[in-house]
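Q: Protein A?
A:
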Amino acid sequence: MPNDSLQIQNTASELLSEVEQLRIELREIEVLIRQTSNEIERQSQKQAEASSRLRQIEANFDSYTREDVRQGYASERDAQLKLLLMRSQLEQFQAKHRQLDRYIQQLRKLHDLASRVAETMGEQEGEMSPGHVVSDHDAVIQTIEAQESERQRLAQQMHDGPAQSLTNLILQAEIVERLFDAEPARARTELGQLKTSANVTFQRVRDFIFALRPMMLDDLGLLPTVRRYTQQFETVNKLPVTLNLNGDRPLPPYIEVTIFRAVQELMNNVAKHAHASRVQVTLDLNAEPTVVIVEDDGSGFDAAQVLARARERGGSGLITLEKRVEMLGGNINYQSATGRGTRVRVLIPAT
């Protein structure tokens, strides 16, 4: 019991240290936000001056040369573009600031929880079963860590993917709007590019929603969702996938979600790091525990070393998956070596 209490106290201290480091980063971002806001204010003045100059030209076309008119439109357009880019950059800094602030608040709550648990364990030494306290505490810690790690990963994906794409769409739309009167031909070209970008962004948003929570999982079940995902993976990554399915017994929803997340995370890892020419996915739902196997013929890796580094960082998708599986009483086994491919076996009790 005393050792457990001391370990939790050390964890609380580490969390507090992490909070302080993040606060330093938060202050740095606040400085960038202020600097960018000042730059936007100066650029707004320049843009206003360019717009005023352009209005003068438009009101007295006959008094200006063709080159003066061209430069007037170009200056106003460039000033507007710079202003839009600066505002987009400010929005990114502000989004990062909000994300860090939320993360700090969650770490603070986790620190307070760990401190209270350590204090309770110290006070109740000899009065309560050690296994009971440690088990409850570990479950709480693992649940919070898994949730926050997943949220942080999704927030980053949203920021780098759909959110950035939508920001670019807004920028393109405003450029087209400004070009309609001055350069109709270029405006039509930009409009065509905008339409293409909108279609690409729409597909990326659909893919993001599917990755976040496939509605098929609720409507049709696990197997159709896995089939759809592997087909989509094969198309996007140009990587052949062999899917072996055994059994179709109904499983609790939280088990189905975990199995799907296991397939998703392991296949994404193959696409990002394995340099493979094929992937094989096996699901055995009739086995007890249920079995998920993802194997590839890629470059392989030193599993022990990579996982140890990932556990130290705490933000890896593989570690989040590992925590989920362990909380359900399952385990993950990695068989891999450099240059010899990778085979990952996930066992999840169905009851």
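Q: Protein B?
A:
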Amino acid sequence: MKVGVFTALMSRLKLAGVLDKIGALGISAVELGTGNYPGDAHCPLSLLDDLHSRRTFQQELADHRTTISALSCHGNPLHPDVARAARDREVSRRTILLAEKLGVKTVVEFSGCPGDSTKATQPNWVTCAWPPEYRELLAWQWEAVVAPYWTQHAKFAQDHGVQIAIEMHPGFVVYSPETMLRLREIAGPAVGANLDPSHLFWQAIDPIAAVRVLGDAIFHVHAKDTQMYPANLARTGVLDTKPYTEERDRGWIFRTVGYGHGAEWWSEFVSTLRMYGYDGVLSIEHEDSLLSPEEGLRKAAAFLNEIVIGDPAGGAWWV
């Protein structure tokens, strides 16, 4: 296992500058956005059709002794706006094709969320079981929209030697281990989880227990933390829709690793991942509104490098 970084946090830098910066922090793996929400600052999909640019891109990574842990194209392929869904689906499809050409085995995505009917214009995320129309809506979403798309898309990925890691994220139909496993049962083994503990903490889901539930369905892992504010939770509850920048009034906010949970927790998380067969990358993602991206990355790298230490031969072991 080793430390990596999701480079979207450094989108203003050229790839070479990113690789220089992370190399100085002891990081040798990158997760690269190819479009949709993460943008494509460091891995544009034009590489798919340009052999020369693709070789130059690969050589730059090799020169910096850096590997790609995943390509990421988080979007909403189930969006009720047909044009929006088609755009996000095409980015995902081309990302899978690019991953195949680059020899990258994992693509990270969101599951997406449909609307409440074929006439909807915005997604409708169901969060409760009553009144009964919500259960009816949820059944329609899964049966009419989720299952048909993901069955086909998972087969496309599998045909190209790629696995899709779904980030469990509220607002989309897959947001918990249970919904993750439901989608996997429908779509098959080419679909698994991108486990980001930050999205589980505020739902009162223990990420370490979630590792035990998901087991070998974990394909990729984000390193991001969450800090809870009990003084505000009594007023806001966990479904807090205020902007993340209103930190004083929110029930929780995303934090750099170590600022929500300490080294003891993260050591146990890493150990449990290894116990259940995950020996990949811990990809640092920065969404901490109280720290700059550079400060957050530097602190996260130092924190995680104390837990996961690489050896000169390129392997890794725990302290």
